[in-house]
Amino acid sequence: MNRRHVLAAGAGCAFSGVSGCLGGGASEETLPDPRDLEGRFDTDHGMEIGPHGGANGQVFYRDNAPGDEGNPAWFHTLVHSLFPYHFDRLDRGWEPTVVYVTDFSRVDYAVRKRDGAPRMPSPTAPDTFADATGLVYVAESEVMGGMGPGLHPFSDDGDAEAFIEEYGGRTIAFDEIDRAAIHGLRE
Question: Which helix (H) or strand (E) holds 185?
């Protein structure tokens, strides 16, 4: 068993231990599992998820049935799609059940050049996603996301620091990601 599989198993155990903090406890609500996004299209841009590179995301909202204006919603970029969409839904009073994003600590990845810029892969399998609130994000690195500057999520702080050593950037927590932070990343 390689290090990534051990980390993924540990992260899954940790997630189940804190899942009650997201929605009042597993006895009240069962969180939906991440979906396999292979061949799916996001509701914001209508673009195929996977070939663009970078972290993907999925958001499930409470009290909104699947199909209600994109619930659940999936995205091929965090900076240009997931977070702006999510902030708009929060403004409408939608309550998230869970936000999942790619966890690069769970993925054996290689940064490759595409269109002249280094890019992360774009995994779509369910086991590559983790609860977004428990991850650390690398911002302002030289590695691009699906549509430009990216946020690269990691469940292991050591993985994030190793990424920064090689590609630059800084870490931010989920609760530091707001409209101003996203706007700054897009410029």
Answer: helix 179-186
Strands 117-119 and 112-114: antiparallel
Verdict on whether the full-model pTM lies above 0.90 = no
Domain extent for 36: 3-186
Helix, strand or coil, per DSSP, at residue 144: strand
| Residue in this structure with the two tokens 């995994």, named with its chain if needed | 123
- Please answer whether residues 167 and 48 qualify as being in contact, where contact means their C-beta atoms are separated by less than 8 angstroms: no
Q: Please give, one letter per residue, the 3-state secondary structure of 66-117.
A: CCCCCCCEEECCHHHHHHHHHHHHHHCCCEEEEEEEECHHHCCCCCEEECCE
CA distances from 23 to 30, 39, 145 (A): 9, 30, 30
DSSP letter assigned to residue 22: H
Residues 6+ apart with CB under 8 A from 127: 8, 34, 106
Higher-pLDDT residue of 15, 39:
39
pLDDT digit string, tens, across residues 117-161:
899 999 999 999 999 999 999 999 999 987 888 999 999 999 999
Question: In this predicted structure, what is the pLDDT of residue 3?
Answer: 39
Q: How many residues does the chain have?
A: 187
**What is d(CA 158, CA 156) in angstroms, rounded to the nearest whole number?**
5
